[in-house]
Amino acid sequence: MTQWSANINIMLKAARKAGRSLMRDFGEVANLQVTSKAPGDFVSRADIKSEKILREELMEARPNYGWLAEEGGEIPGEDPTRRWIVDPLDGTTNFLHGLPHWAISIALEHKGEIVAAVIFNPASEELFVAEKGGGAWLNDRRIRVSSRREMIEMLFSTGLPFGGRSDLPETLQDLARVLPGCSGVRRWGAAALDLAYVAAGRYDGFWERQLKIWDISAGLLLVKEAGGLAESITKDNNPLHDGTVVAASGESFDRFAKLIRNQ
User: Fold this and answer.
1) Number of Cβ atoms within 10 Å of the Cβ of 9
2) H runs (alpha helix) in the chain
3) What is the C-alpha end-to-end distance of the chain, expressed in Å?
4) CATH fold for domain 6-143
5) SS3 sequence, 54-120?
């Protein structure tokens, strides 16, 4: 897609600017691991700085849109039909540990539907973009979901509950159903990139519970525009509202969703 809409161009500019800021901070993370400074506090400041850049760029360009982001919460807009949904640093734990697998996620919602999406991993310089009706793209190359047909060949992704989260038993049961019949399950710690990887055909499917709207809003559109399906784990719910998602190619979705839903 050679010509992006004005909104996508605004999102790209904001993502790249925030990405430069995060990369400078990412370069300092390794040094912090061997000092008496608190790396967690440093990363939190990097996160907040990224969100400030994104908010300035996006809200300056579209001052009447609403705003919803991980750190700063929600700000209603003069235009009640449109809002930015932003995660300034998805994969914070990876960032903290010096692992180059994290991203900036920006989505534009219009009348309750995600219509534009940008997910940017500055460490790998991979930029995923989707617009309603315009397909899904990675660094100007069209991407599609996986075409694998045999479950035993498929590679899936999920999140593993940590820190005493209540969904650990469910996730262990999921793994017991999924692992015996597939080629593997990965846990890379950034839901936005998990969904982007499903869109790019790297993963055949992804599922997770207890997600926030900013974790998945951009990724859901990427999967859809790449020819995949993404639904709530609870049938007929909206993943943006209930924070659960199961996503896969159209070819494998029903079989994969049945395993996750334990039907």
Assistant:
1) 12
2) 6-32, 39-61, 92-96, 168-178, 191-199, 213-225, 239-242, 253-261
3) 40
4) Fructose-1,6-Bisphosphatase; Chain A, domain 1 (3.30.540)
5) HHHHHHHHCCCCEEEECCCEEECCCCCCEEEEEEEEECHHHHHCCCCCCEEEEEEEECCEEEEEEEE
181-227 pLDDT tens trace: 999 999 999 999 999 999 999 999 999 999 999 999 999 999 999 99
Q: Indicate the domain borders of the chain.
A: 6-143, 151-261
Rounded to 10 degrees, what is the CA torsion of 192, 68, 104, 33?
A: -100
Residue 111: other Cβ atoms inside 10 A: 8
Q: Which residues contact 61 (CB under 8 A, 6 or more apart)?
A: 10, 14
- CA dist., res. 263 & res. 260, Å (int): 8
Architecture of domain 151-261: 3-Layer(aba) Sandwich (3.40)
For 113-162, write each residue's pLDDT tens digit: 999 999 999 999 999 999 999 999 999 999 999 999 999 999 999 999 88
pLDDT of residue 251: 87
- Look-up: residue for tokens 């901070």? 25
State residue 68's pLDDT score: 97
In terms of Cβ atoms closer than 10 Å to its own Cβ (0-12, 13-18, 19+), residue 149 is exposed
CA distance 49 to 118: 19
Distance of CA 205 to the CA centre of its chain: 14
Six token digits for residue 171: 């996730």
Claim: this prediction has a pTM higher than 0.70: yes
Q: Please give the order of strands across the beta sheet that includes 205-208.
A: 184-186, 155-158, 205-208, 245-249, 228-231
